[in-house]
Specification:
By secondary structure, this protein is mainly α. The protein folds into 2 domains: about 120 residues, no CATH class; about 160 residues, no CATH class. Helix 1 packs parallel to helix 10 and helix 9 packs antiparallel against helix 12. The longest helix is centred in the middle third of the chain and has 23 residues. The N and C termini lie far apart (about 50 Å). The protein binds a DNA duplex through helix 3 and helix 6. Keywords: DNA-binding, Nucleus. InterPro entries: Homeodomain-like_sf, Myb_dom, Myb_TF_plants, SANT/Myb. It is found in: Nucleus.
Length: about 325
Amino acid sequence: MGRPPCCDKDGVKKGQWTPEEDLILVSYIQQHGPGNWRAVPTNAGLLRCSKSCRLRWTNYLRPGIKRGNFTEQEEKMIIHLQALLGNRWAAIASYLPQRTDNDIKNHWNTHLKKKLKKLHGTQGYCRDGFSSSASSEQISRGQWERKLQTDINMAKQALSDALSPQKSSGLTELKPSNGNSYAKSGAYASSAENIAKMLKRWMRKSPLKPGSTQQSFDNMFSAGVTTESANSSQGADDHSRKEEEKKCSKEMSEAFQSLFAFESFDSSNSDDFSRSMSTEASLSLQDETKPDLDPHAGQLLLLEKWLFDDAANQGKDYQFSDTSLDENPKFEFLL
DNA sequence: AAAATAGACAACCGCGATCGC
DNA sequence: CGCGATCGCGGTTGTCTATTT
């Protein structure tokens, strides 16, 4: 006698999203900002359920998302965090900016689990899955913690590099509290990047007639995806990258090219957004960290403290947008 | 070249948590 | 305080692509 599925209605579309749907969704969120998902399908004119819209946005269209190509540092970090937190993918994702919980979960299930299993078979399973030939039972707690600390330092360095302010440029800071600011933010550039990638894939699968595509995308853009963002300041690097992308996309229609002009092709520009997102996620993680429930609470707190201390130490260069630690009483104990 | 199989990943589903009335 | 609506998370499934036979 469970609750009936929210998407169990007639006329609600399921399955793969089309580029048109993506553009409608991005366009809508560009104007109104994310949130109030219940109203999104109706207001945006999408034949999807609210859940599907939210999922599509958070896992695929959201700016600042990096997909695929996990680095070894990221993998190590995921393995460490999985050992500490278990299958709490959202919490793990909060420590990996630009990665979504779904992406991490998929990567874990398809790659890392096998990797660990393989290592388990050849050298004996170790909690970090990478470097020990002894079983975890044989390693003393002290040894394991030292090893954990070493690897965490490596992952920390990688994270620090990834978040380096030098890599971000020209992205206006998002202020989620002000919905209209979304419309002016360059953050949508990487949404379009994601869409563009998906469009290429989609074109491979089902080549469209240029005419119909043109019309369809013209309608889309006139409906709300303005070129305003495209006109925002972009660096020379972005320009050259755009050119390169255009070369690879000759077969695409003019409408596609206007989409390319709309975006920056530099996902690192979304670092500010990623930071704000990861901060939010960290806040939620802080909320859900319940020492009385979590057997690894000590390690978890250590890890969190490491992360937040680092952020605090880099305060000058590395400022969380929107929600700063020192403004939040929840983090007093960490500062 | 075609069929079968495996791998990868996007999306769905169900449940618990949270929010607002 | 109770209840319904909504959101967010994790597990699972479905589909597409690549590889092997």
